[in-house]
Amino acid sequence: QELTEGSITVSAPSNIALVKYWGKKQHQIPANPSISFTLSHCKTVTTLAFAKKTQSDSFSFDLLFEGKPKEDFKPKIQKFFERIETYMPFLKNYHFTIDTKNTFPHSSGIASSASGMAALSVALMHVEKQLDPEMDDGHFYQKASFLARLGSGSACRSVKGSVVIWGNHADFSESSDFYGVAFPFEIHPNFKNYQDTILLVDKGKKEVSSTVGHDLMHGHPFAAQRFLQAHDNLHRLCAVMQNGNLTDFVSIVESEALTLHAMMMTSMPYFILMKPNTLEIINHIWKFRKETGIPVCFTLDAGANVHVLYPENVSVEVLAFIKSNLVGYCENGQYICDAIGHGAELI
Ligand code: PMV
Fold first, then answer.
1. Which E.C. number(s) belong to this protein (predicted)?
2. pTM, two decimal places
3. Looking at the structure, do residues 227 and 306 belong to the same domain, yes or no?
């Protein structure tokens, strides 16, 4: 198929891991399997314009952020293109203009790498599909997730599905270290429209990047045990997603969040990404849960912000609690109300 120019706009959401990916092997292969909720409102929207060039000896692209030139991500995209070139031989034949915007606030401390890399990968797959219109959906999404993984590991969980597994695991015959797959069994109605309110505790740039953090799992004294635990927690969570047991959900998810940060604190060099307000919030959540019996819990990414997870049917009570007890611990009182979503979309 001859394709001279065109433009594609896609959105891809962020995701929040329930069982965490922390530690990787070469070529973005995870040291353990992980599972996440896809989000709905925290998204990246990317417009990819492409035009055929006469020479095809190097990559050629312009990067824009909200329509304005943005040079600082160029090396990251250059590296991404180098990594995926063998799988997308047409890359050097086109000049690309990549214009990106995020639906979440600027420098909110919410990483845009998962949503950003997923959006770009899905957009590139749409170009490939225009070159090969016969391509089926299964191949399209699997390859999009595969490419996203090469951009940023957890991005492969932002392409398709509400609950996504990445990494080989005995309970899921279709699972893979190379791409994310949607949870293959029926999900209990308790998780329908599950809520994630993200409390922005610290909007600054992280002191230690996740790349460095993953690396420190090599030679980490607890690594082998941690990787086994992740398999076990994913096995237990697989049952919970089907039986809807929220008591078990809370204990697995909170334990995973604290273990992630325990790995950071026991790395060499050690580091701490939580802030005093992170701990204040955690203690308030525990107290509220004990007093009310409402199954609200927290999880953490590689940062100080707190994700508050709860079923939709207790939203009114939990939001009132958040407003009266937790918002004071957020930077400028900022938080984002999100909920479980479905993945990337063509716009
Ligand atoms: O995708 P990366 O390399 O930025 O790693 C993300 C790791 C965590 O967010 C901490 C956990 C996860 O599974 O998403």
1. 4.1.1.33
2. 0.97
3. yes
Same domain for 263 and 172: no
34 lines ligand 1 (CB under 6 A): yes
Closest ligand 1 atom to residue 302 Cα is 10
Task: Report yes or no on 328 lying in a domain.
Answer: yes
Q: Assess whether the C-beta atom of 158 lies below 6 angstroms from ligand 1.
A: no
Q: Structure tokens of 145? A: 């997730």
- My answer on whether 112 and 27 are in the same domain is yes
**From CA 312, how far away is CA 325, in angstroms rounded?**
19
Write down which residue in 164, 187, 210 finishes a domain: 187
Angstrom distances, CA of residue 279 to CA of 208, 274, 276, 287, 298: 19, 7, 5, 12, 11
Residues in a beta bridge with 310: 195
Mean pLDDT of 127-140: 97
Domain range for 174 is 5-187
**CA–centroid distance, residue 304 to ligand 1 (Å):** 14
Structure tokens given for 56: 């095809």
Mean pLDDT of 85-100: 97
Residues 162 and 230 in one domain: no
Determine the Cα–Cα distance for residues 300 and 203; give it in Å rounded to an integer.
14
